[in-house]
Design goal:
The complex is a heterodimer of chains A (358) and B (444). Chain A is mainly α. Chain A has helices at residues 2-32, 37-47, 51-68, 70-79, 81-100, 107-137, 177-201, 207-235, 241-245, 251-262, 274-294, 318-345, and strands at 144-145, 148-149, 297-299, 309-310. Chain A has one domain (2-345). A two-stranded antiparallel ribbon of chain A has the order 1-2. In chain A, strands 3-4 form a two-stranded antiparallel ribbon. In chain A, a hairpin with a 2-residue loop joins strand 1 and strand 2 (148-149). Bound molecules: CIS-heme D hydroxychlorin gamma-spirolactone (HDD) and protoporphyrin IX containing FE (2 copies). One protoporphyrin IX containing FE sits between chains B (16, 19-20, 22-23, 26-27, 62-63, 66-67, 70-71, 73-74, 96, 104, 107-108, 137, 140-141, 144) and A (55-56, 59). Chain A: It holds the Pfam family Cyt_bd_oxida_II.
């Protein structure tokens, strides 16, 4: 049962990153590359009917985490208190930037909300990468110092950073050079992903330019991924043992590699949506590879006194987990239908149709 | 300990109060928009479609506020109430997760279609998307109230050796006797809010001599919906909820009604009075004998337990707050019924659109349903104290063990600043939409 909910949770989070990822990415493109007012409008239009439903994947994944793995939810959310609340603030800024921009026709008003939308998209992409970095690196569960845990259970609290910015220091912070590296990777991949979405869904005048940007950034991405892999063993002693034990897991990194390499051909794709598929593959492969490498841990401990949080010691009772399966299956089928309808109705280029402003 | 949790409580109370301003209108207004859309399909009068479109603009803005303030709620259980989440997550997480899966997806997917898709979908399908948005928002209310009902009256659980609560009976979460009365009462409260908003905006147009056709339509619709929901909120749903409190949380009930001493031979109902906690009595009391006993138990002489019957540790922590919250809600409820009855009479006499004082009253009443709903929630929440889960888990034992009060104060201040800005923007933009008024289209 734990495995079932673990897979559900990871799939939902991955879907969340792929979906909300393109609108974060669109925000970053909007911030850096959209100069003309028309392009800005086209970009926001291309995510207009979708972003809210995309964000629901996060809320729903949060709900599943809460119910299936309450200990993980409680320990991680209170431990990462400050960064989480800041993520919430950024989500608020981003959403109102998108929603309020069109409400008043005034250049200053529009400029303010454009920036709010763009900058919070950028920071969110960074924060999500940093968050992933924290989960991989682990934290000092129970706040052990000199062999004694300061807190009952697994509870800990992490400051935003420590003075050394090192992932190997005794007192960790949320931001260190390792988590920051993952944050930068996340910004770049989401920028690529968002650009692909814009190329796919619009006829904007910057599409040709965006293809070049994707092509160049892909080199940077490749270099950063190789760097992070080569230092991974400093973060985890046996980084790839799960893959050695279960070779079928190599499917995941292979998918990531296909996605990454495919993107180099961006300029010659016949269909505008192909790039988007490849960047989705990379996101899917990359995220699954990362979580598979620490499985069954979900929040590793950096000390030997308090055990890591795993899917087994953080879950709720067996009955609750099994009864949830019934409603979950019904719900996920409904969700699939909604998404089908939604993307069907809004298929094609978003600026070709007059969807009507609201 | 009490001090340590102070900011956590303030933060929760502040963010939820602010959040709930928006969903109450979402839930009520979606019903009324569906009604306008339905009228349009039936009568083919374009005015109804224009009315639906106008309210959709307000709805979209309001909904966005509901979403952005709702997301922090979901996370706050983990960030601020970690012990509570760890212990009860297997149960209340169940209904919260269902809310995300069943209602938020429904609402948000079809809201996009509803707002952007009228031309693409055609009128009938467009109506259907509106109906689905309405269903989603009411389902969301239902599941959140189910969650909340478990905290007021826990059922279907089992306590493990390690102190955690796990679910033993899924069905019990939904057959919880607290749930249905509370849900219906709450939904009626939200229909009241939307009725008053619609009627108030209509009155604004009539008084201004602008958009008079819409003014009449809004006033009429608002008054009819308002009359029905104001009556239903008091009877049977409010009455039913009150009986539940008397039955399952007698100490909270005594606090709400301001009964310090058990009265022999039937309890009086207090209309006015100020709790004097030092001397354990009500000052300046105006009360009607025996009515409370009758309302609660249908028996004029049944005794109602006073606070003196309960151990101090079981008393609601803030009796005056509880008492005022309850009396404000009930008092406003009575005023709503009175106003709506008068307005309906004038409507039937075809004089409503010219009766200036009623139009002015309708306009100025817009904030009051919000106050009634908020104080209603304060009644529920203050009455539950000192428990986080009634009779099971105390509020002091539910807080996050490692988050210091300095950090909580920091985030509380952040939320206050941010929400202050959100509130201003909302008022500015809603005011702008209302001032501009509905647009009329010749064809559809
Ligand atoms: C416009 C809003 C509104 C109005 C006019 C009323 N209520 Fe109410 N009331 C609510 C809005 C509300 C609410 C905010 O929706 C609550 C909070 C929890 C709930 O389910 O509904 C609530 C809760 C609530 C409770 C539960 C407290 C608890 O759970 O501990 C009682 C006993 C009543 N109400 C009783 C009444 C009565 C007898 C009314 C007679 C006029 C009344 N309410 C009018
Ligand atoms: C239906 C979903 C709701 C849930 C699950 C819920 C849950 C909670 C929790 C966990 C707390 C913090 C612990 C405590 O102080 O008891 C709390 C407190 C509080 N809530 Fe609610 N709440 C809900 C709805 C509301 C609404 C809609 C309002 C107001 C409009 C509200 C007003 C308050 C207040 C004022 C407190 C502080 C009470 C105090 O600390 O004395 N709640 N609630
Ligand atoms: C009486 C209490 C509550 C009711 C009736 C209620 C109802 C609703 C409704 C109808 C919405 C849809 C959007 C909108 O209203 O504008 C919404 C949004 C939301 N609510 Fe509440 N809510 C309540 C309290 C809470 C609490 C305690 C939580 C925390 C778990 C919460 C979490 C959310 C979230 C995450 C959203 C955003 C959903 C989206 O993206 O569509 N709400 N709420």
């Amino acid at each position: 049962m734990e495995i079932f909910w673990y897979i559900v949770l990871m799939v939902m989070l991955t879907v969340y990153i792929i979906l909300d990822g393109y609108d974060f990415g669109a925000g970053i493109v909007h911030l850096f590359f959209a100069k003309k007012d028309k392009d800005k409008k086209v970009i926001t239009k291309s995510i207009g009917p979708f972003w809210d439903a995309n964000e629901v994947w996060l809320i729903a994944a949060g709900g599943i985490l809460f119910f299936a793995f309450p200990t993980l939810y409680a320990v991680a959310f209170s431990g990462f208190y400050l960064p989480l609340i800041m993520i919430l603030w950024l989500l608020i800024f981003r959403a109102i930037g998108l929603e309020l921009r069109g409400q008043i026709k005034n250049t200053i008003w529009e400029a303010i909300w454009d920036k709010a939308f763009g900058i919070s998209s950028l920071l969110l992409a960074l924060f999500f990468g940093v968050a992933l970095g924290n989960v991989v690196r682990g934290v000092n569960l129970g706040m052990v110092s000199e062999g004694v845990a300061a807190n009952e259970g697994h509870y800990f609290f992490l400051p935003l950073w420590n003075s050394t910015f090192s992932p190997q220091a005794e007192h960790l912070g949320v931001i260190d050079w390792f988590t920051l590296l993952l944050g930068v990777i996340s910004v770049i991949i989401l920028l690529i992903h968002g650009a692909n979405w814009i190329i796919f869904k619009t006829n904007s005048s910057i599409n040709e330019k965006l293809k070049k940007v994707v092509f160049r950034l892909n080199f940077v991405l490749l270099a950063l991924v190789i760097t992070s892999l080569s230092i991974w063993d400093r973060i985890e002693a046996l980084p790839f043992h799960n893959f050695m034990d279960h070779p079928w897991l190599f499917i995941f990194p292979s998918i990531a590699i296909i996605g990454l390499l495919g993107l180099f051909k961006i300029k010659s794709f016949k269909k505008d949506g192909t790039g988007f598929i490849f960047s989705s593959l990379f996101l899917f492969g990359g995220l699954t590879t990362t979580v598979a490498s620490i499985f069954p841990k979900v929040l590793p401990s950096t000390n030997d006194v308090v055990s890591s949080l795993t899917i087994y010691n953080s879950s709720t009772g067996e009955y609750g987990l099994s009864v949830g399966v019934y409603w979950f299956i019904i719900a996920i089928i409904l969700v699939a239908i909604y998404m089908f309808v939604q993307y069907r109705v809004f298929s094609g280029k978003m600026d070709d149709n007059s969807y009507g402003e609201h | 300990m009490e001090d340590m949790i102070f900011y956590d409580r303030m933060q929760f109370a502040f963010t939820i109060t602010f959040h709930y301003i928006f969903p109450q209108l979402t839930m009520g207004l979606s019903l009324m928009i569906v009604y306008f859309k339905w009228k349009f399909l039936r009568t083919k009068l374009v005015q109804y479609n224009d009315a639906a479109k106008f309210w959709m603009k307000i709805f979209a803005l309001n909904f966005a506020m509901g979403v952005v303030t709702g997301i922090p709620m979901e996370f706050q259980f983990g960030t601020n109430w970690a012990k509570f989440s760890e212990l009860t997550g297997g149960i209340i997480g169940q209904t919260l997760a269902m809310e995300g899966m069943f209602s938020f997806f429904l609402e948000s997917s079809f809201l996009g279609l509803f707002l952007f898709g009228e031309k693409l979908l055609g009128q009938r399908l467009h109506f259907l998307t509106g109906l689905l948005v309405f269903l989603g928002s009411w389902a969301s209310g239902f599941l959140i109230i189910a969650t909340h009902s478990w905290m007021q009256h826990p059922v279907g659980y089992e306590i493990l050796e390690n102190g955690k609560y796990v679910l033993k009976n899924f069905g019990a979460l939904f057959s919880n006797p607290w749930l249905i009365p509370s849900f219906l009462h709450n939904q009626m409260g939200s229909v009241i809010t939307s009725s008053f908003v619609v009627a108030g905006v209509g009155a604004f147009y009539l008084l201004n001599n602008k958009h008079s056709q819409f003014g009449k339509l809004f006033v009429k619709t608002g008054v009819v919906f308002g009359l029905v929901s104001s009556i239903l909120v008091a009877f049977p749903t409010g009455d039913w909820t009150a009986k539940n409190v008397a039955k399952y949380q007698p100490a909270a009930f005594a606090g709400m009604e301001g009964i310090f001493e058990t009265e022999k031979g039937g309890a009086e109902i207090v209309l006015i009075g100020q709790p004097d906690m030092e001397n354990k009595k009500l000052d300046n009391k105006i009360a009607v004998p025996n009515v409370l006993s009758f309302l609660t138990y249908q028996n004029w002489t049944q005794e109602v337990k006073g606070l003196n019957e309960f151990d101090e540790s079981l008393h609601p922590t803030n009796v005056p707050g509880l008492y005022y919250a309850y009396h404000i809600m009930v008092g406003l409820g009575t005023i709503f019924i009175g106003l709506m009855v008068i307005a309906t009479i004038q409507l039937f006499r075809k004089k409503l659109y010219k009766t200036k004082w009623i139009l002015w009253t309708l306009l100025f009443m817009i904030p009051f349903p919000y106050i009634a709903n908020t104080t209603g929630w304060y009644t529920a929440e203050l009455g539950r104290q000192p428990w986080l889960v009634y009779d099971l888990l105390r509020t002091v034992d539910g807080v996050s063990p490692t988050v210091s009060s300095g950090n909580t104060l920091f985030t509380l201040l952040g939320f206050i600043g941010l929400y202050f800005m959100l509130g201003l923007l909302f008022l500015l933009l809603a005011g702008k939409i209302i001032n501009k008024g509905p647009e009329t289209e010749k064809t559809v």
